[in-house]
Amino acid sequence: MAEKITPRAEDYSQWYIDLVTQAELADYAPVKGCMIIRPRGYAIWEVMQRTLDDMFKAEGVQNCYFPTLIPYSFLQKEAEHVEGFSPEVLTVTHSGEKKLEEPLALRPTSETIIWHTFKKWVQSHRDLPLLINQWANVFRAEMRPRLFLRTVEFLWQEGHTAHATAEEANEFAKRMIHVYQRFVEDTLAIPVMVGVKSDSEKFPGAVYTYSIEAMMQDGKALQAGTSHDLGDNFGKAFEVQFQNKEGKLAPVYASSWGVSTRLMGALIMTHSDDKGLVLPPKLAPTQVVIVPIFKASNKDVVLAHAQSIYTEIKRAGHRVILDDKDGYSPGWKFAQWELAGVPLRIEFGERDMQSQSLVVSRRDRAEKESIEASQLLSYVEQTLATMQNDLFLSAKERMQTRTKELVDYPAFTRYFEEEGGFALACWCGDASCETKVKTQLQVTIRNLPFIQNEEAITGRCVVCGEQAKHQAIWSKSY
Ligand SMILES: [Zn+2]
Question: Distance from the CA of 269 to the center of ligand 1, in angstroms?
């Protein structure tokens, strides 16, 4: 039996760590800040990958692979990019005993090597748009590591596109943030706020960074995905040009976009509880677990029935496992499957068989119910769909309840000191107001939502009282 998970009410961050380790999602590695993703965690990541990969392909994006090692000088070609990333870059200086003439960077992201290569791939208007993605690992030095949320090496996908016009690149960057929104809301059942980052929070080298921001159970924000309109910054830095239809050389415009294993953190901190992981059915590697209750005297007949139920559910296309292990009590098994977050549990013993019924329980509900065995398939189908929807709705309700519109600074300060959550408040657009709030309250602008309340923008900046330009989502964040 796993050790006890610290209750959320007692210590939210300890709860998170206990859950990640005891549900066997990930473990610490010998190198500080690195993480071992265990089979149960990786299986969830694989479902995310498969789902997203299909969504990317539906947008015409193709997969490819670039190397981990990048000549350090590449990072220096785009001024903002190097300034933003150099404090986080890990470098390789030796090959065996021999010192390298030029250090190599372990990629923190791949814009530079990709745009170096696009110079060869993009020559004519016929080569555009160019839409690629890679599933890869990246490295960023991390002072305050946390499993899944901040690790030195993490897994992600990074999409990179090249376009003939600035408008097209911008349109594509926006399109991808909406792909992420759809994925995170539909599959992970996590509602998000979609918008544009302020200049001080955008990606180094981007014209605009779009983000989706989710609210965790403790009211803090987690940036769940970003998409960047890179303008012609990387095209220029790597001297990529193309011959347009008129035969003239023209600049090439870019977008890049990514989500990472951080999504695992978002998933855990949105839905899970003190008993362990809670997984939305669409994402769960195992959607249904069957736990037959038997004794030595009736084992054969109970297990034969369990096998037939298993086959029935599997044939209907659901991901199901049969826990017929000997030597563990049903109660022990139930606790294990709850810890692992399997959405639906079916249990039965000989007496249930005689009455042609089954006992079912949803991971996100405390109660059990009895159903007729003949209704099993339709029950499973409906319940998985309902649970997916209920998880989304309850997360959405929490986000709505904990999003407060605020107009004056004393109330704004009090809100973050006493409750915390998202504050929807006007901003003049000046970075000094952001700095003040960050220093005093450790609160940042998460994004400026795409859907702006036009009336509110005619108001005053919540910090300085000057004429507001935007409505912003402010919050503490992971
Ligand atoms: Zn201001």
Answer: 32
pLDDT at position 2 is: 54
Ligand 1 center to 223 CA (angstroms): 23
> Quick one: tokens of 20?
């990640």
Token representation of residue 211: 């983000």
Segment 346-384, tens digit of pLDDT: 999 999 999 999 999 999 998 899 999 999 999 999 999
Residue-range domain boundaries for the chain: 12-271, 288-386, 403-475
CA of 441 relative to ligand 1 center, distance in Å: 15
Distance 405 CA to ligand 1 centre (A): 16
CB 221 within 8 A of CB 214: yes
- What separation in Å is there between the alpha carbon of 371 and the centre of ligand 1? 59
Please tell me the total number of residues recorded for the chain in this structure.
Answer: 478
Tell me what pLDDT residue 79 has. 80
**83 alpha carbon to ligand 1 midpoint, in Å?**
26
Contacts with 443 (C-beta within 8 Å, 6 or more apart), sequence order: 416, 423, 437, 474, 475, 476
Question: Does residue 135 come out as left (phi exceeding 0), alpha (psi in the -120 to 50 range) or beta?
Answer: beta
Residue recorded with tokens 């470098």: 91
Alpha carbon of 113 to ligand 1 centroid (Å) = 39
- What's the fold here for domain 403-475? Translation Initiation Factor IF3 (3.30.110)
